[in-house]
Amino acid sequence: MKDFKSLLFILLTILCYIIAKKMYAKYTNPLLIPIVTSTTVIMIILVNLHISYEKYMLGGKWINLLLGPAVVSFAYPLYEHRATLKKHCLSIFISVFAGTVIGLFSGVYLSLWLGLKKIIMLSLAAKSVTTPLAMSITSIIGGIPSLTVVYVMIAGISGSIVGPFILSILKIDHPVAIGTSYGIASHGVGTAKAAEYGKIEQAISSIAMTLSAILASILIPFLIKLILK
């Protein structure tokens, strides 16, 4: 029975995503990105059927385990566009460093400004890092990994929804700028969004996401130690 439920939840998740993706292809709108619509539908189903998160994760955990390999797969577009990466390596690194620092300080100091509990602040610190690494970082600094996942999802989804409007208003159309923006602000979800612009944007977003994760994993422990003194 347990195995049947696991399979059922896996199929439910995949089916919702496929339907959401087809709907997004037909009605291209930032508010209808597949990860938003499919997640919303699954939440409605679980709430109405009184299915707990723990029960859903009997099958959902297997999809969750694929996050790591999915991030590694981004290496292929990097290899394809390595010449572009070499050409713009300095500007990409400077942008990623600035974006990572701003992302870290904004999350932590917003928590302090709002008077949130220490455990919530620690969970919020890694909000701008791709999920697998964000959970590991949060565990190390003493936060709640499951809470961090929520913040990471909010950052990724909101960036993918608002990103097109901001880029349009600021008239940013350079592939490197677009890819870097999505990679830093919205990590994996942003990289999927960047792929809609083109392969170069996807490749740049991948490297921005990866560099941001590396820098964040180094900076966050020092930042938290400095603030909590």
Describe this structure in words.
With 229 residues, the chain is an all-alpha fold. The protein folds into two domains: 65 residues; 158 residues, no CATH class. 82% of the residues lie in helices and 0% in strands. It has twelve helices and no strands. Helix 9 packs parallel to helix 12.
Count of spatially separate domains: 2
Structural class assignment = mainly alpha
Along the chain, the helix and strand elements come as: HHHHHHHHHHHH
Strand percentage lies at: under 5%
Observed structural traits:
single chain, 229 residues, globular
Quick summary:
The chain is 82% helix and 0% strand.
Topology:
Elements: H1 2-26, H2 34-48, H3 53-64, H4 67-72, H5 75-80, H6 82-87, H7 89-114, H8 118-124, H9 131-141, H10 145-169, H11 175-194, H12 199-227
Helix pairs in contact: 1-2, 1-3, 7-8, 7-11, 7-12, 9-10, 9-12, 10-11, 11-12
